Each structure stands twice: as structure tokens, then as C-alpha cells.
Amino acid sequence: MRPVGTGAETVPVTPVDIAVERVSKSFGETRIFDDVSFRLARSEAVAIVGANGTGKSTLLRCVMGLIPATSGKVTVLGQDMASATGAETRAVRARMGLVSQKHNLVPRLSVLSNVVQGLLGQQPGLRHWSHKLAPAASRDAAMAALKKVGLADFALRRADRLSGGQSQRVAIARAIVGHPEVLIADEPCASLDPAAGEEVMELFFDLARAQNVTVVFISHHIDHALKYGDRVLGLAGGKLRLDATAASLGPTDLRGLYD
Ligand SMILES: Nc1ncnc2c1ncn2[C@@H]1O[C@H](COP(=O)(O)OP(=O)(O)OP(=O)(O)O)[C@@H](O)[C@H]1O
Ligand SMILES: [Mg+2]
Fold first, then answer.
1. Which domains does the chain possess?
2. Which residues line ligand 1 (CB under 6 A)?
3. In percent, how much of the chain has pLDDT > 70?
């Protein structure tokens, strides 16, 4: 399969939130991927698929500015990530939310404190480590986010007393509490059973659509990629082998990526 375009031409008037241009990434001598390009417009959702070890998480980490690309250019919300100062990188990251495969909640802290910590990017400092220290406005924002994920009643429960599905919903609340413009999700339901996983995906995308957020998510579930992605990008053999609208693809088109 060949890439079918950058995607930019399909949505010429909306702003491009993420532009990845000819990006390559190596760790030492090991080339992970090469010459990857795509552009995402505001409120587009794109699924990244591909076999284990093809570099999907690495690509997301480059987009988030957590690691530098080896070559090429990553622009997020108008910021060139390679030339960004530390402060500029933090400013862009404060406009992004992240949900990962494992929720990464702080186990001994309350659910509410964990969600308050989602504001640390915007308001660094000790006051956003715990709900007890947080300003009322931040606590209110965290409660509003917990309401959206249906867990307001769990606000004061310790995070390590939650089920896997509940923990992922708290992670979603933490990701959206600061009203991000871009949401990144690295296999957000990988550790969940199918029913809980479906629930988490539905919730995640309901919230993303309601807030007009641009979403990049990795999924090993082909049905999730096709259902929730407007577009699907496929990494295989160190290249972007697929960039197509979900509507134009069927499950068999994606199977080729895993050969
Ligand atoms: N910090 C690092 N240093 C060296 N190699 C790394 C580093 N991070 C990732 N890799 C390697 O890069 C390759 C791609 O890893 P990555 O985690 O991006 O794959 P992935 O597509 O997300 O896989 P999975 O589906 O299993 O999550 C792997 O071979 C991995 O071992
Ligand atoms: Mg990964």
C-alpha cells in the first residue's frame, strides 16, 4: 500500500495542529523509522497502527517533544519542536493531553489529586501536586473533569483502589482537565477487557469530539482504528506504509501491515 497523501489537501481551511515532515528516528545506529510525513488538521482523529516494535510510541514521543527526531521537522500547534526552548516545549505540552497504556496514576494519592496534577503543565508548582493544596478553581476543574468521566463519587478514593477501567477513566480526566487542543493516546485500552476497553474508547472520543480536540491514538485493535480514526496511519518496515481515510479501508487492508 502506498501513502495516499498528506491529508492537508482534504481540509484546507482548518488549522494544521500537527505537521510531521520527513521525520526519521534512530537510537544510536539503529534506525527505527525513516521519512515519515503527515499533517493533522484541528479536530481530526488519526489512528496509528503497526506491529510491535515498529516505532509507533517513538513517533508519538517525537510529536510530544519528549525525544528529538533524528532528522526532519515536527511542528505542533505552530511550534517547531526542534528549535523550541525548554519553556516553549513546556508551553506546547501544556496544550496537549496524554493517555497511555498504563494509566500512570500516583497510587497513594486521591483520584482528585491525580486529576489536579493534569494542570501541572499549565501551572507548575507544589500547589498542583495535591488537591488539598490546589486553588479552588483547579479543584473545581478537576471535579468537572471527573464528572465527565462519571467518577465524581470517587474523588477522594485512593487511586490504587480503583479497577483498571476506572483508572483509565481517571487518566482521561487528568488528560482533559486543562482543556487540551491535542490529545495523544498510546493504546489507551490495552490493559482492559473488551467491554471496559470499548467503554473507555467511547468516552475518550465523546469528550474529544465535544471539545473539538485533535487526537492521535495508537491501537492494536483494527476495529478501533477504523471506528474512531478519521484517518489511519500504518508503520511497517521503518516506513509510513499507509495514510488513508478510515472510510476507504476495510480490516483486510490493514492486515497487510502485520505480514
Ligand atoms: N530509548 C530507546 N533506546 C533505544 N531503543 C529504543 C528506545 N525506545 C524504543 N526503542 C526501540 O525502538 C523500537 C520501537 O519501539 P516503540 O516502543 O516505538 O514501538 P511500538 O511500535 O510502540 O511497539 P508496541 O506495539 O510494542 O508498543 C523498538 O525496537 C524499541 O526497542
Ligand atoms: Mg508502543
1. 8-105+162-258 (3.40.50.300)
2. 27, 32, 50, 52-58
3. 95
